[in-house]
Write a structure and sequence with these properties.
The chain is an alpha+beta fold. Helix content is about 30%, strand content about 50%.
């Protein structure tokens, strides 16, 4: 049975629209190549942070809802996002079955 996940990540605010689009496509591709089925991938909002993160005071939040049979897609996303300079923070949450 597939598990539902909600992934939120924060993109650097100084990326231009084309670079941000390429980043989102690349990371959506990482999820699908590792067995995830993406239900929704969309920008949420650009928000000001309560504290500075990597020298930035704001960032663009992106939300991805997906399902996967195992944790492979989530683990690979997390691994690559940690070494990416374009993603400031990420959080992956398993959602309860509805």
């Amino acid at each position: 049975m597939a598990t539902s996940y909600e992934l939120t990540y924060i993109v650097r605010p100084d990326l231009d629209a084309d670079a941000k689009k390429a980043l989102v496509e690349r990371f959506d591709g990482i999820l699908t190549k590792n067995g995830a089925n993406i239900a929704k991938s969309a920008d949420w909002a650009t928000r000001r942070f309560a504290y500075e993160i990597a020298g930035y005071r704001e960032g663009t939040y992106h939300i991805v809802n997906f399902t996967a049979d195992d944790d492979q897609a989530a683990n690979e996303f997390d691994r690559l996002a940690k070494i990416s300079g374009e993603i400031l923070r990420q959080m992956i949450v398993k959602r309860d079955a509805e």
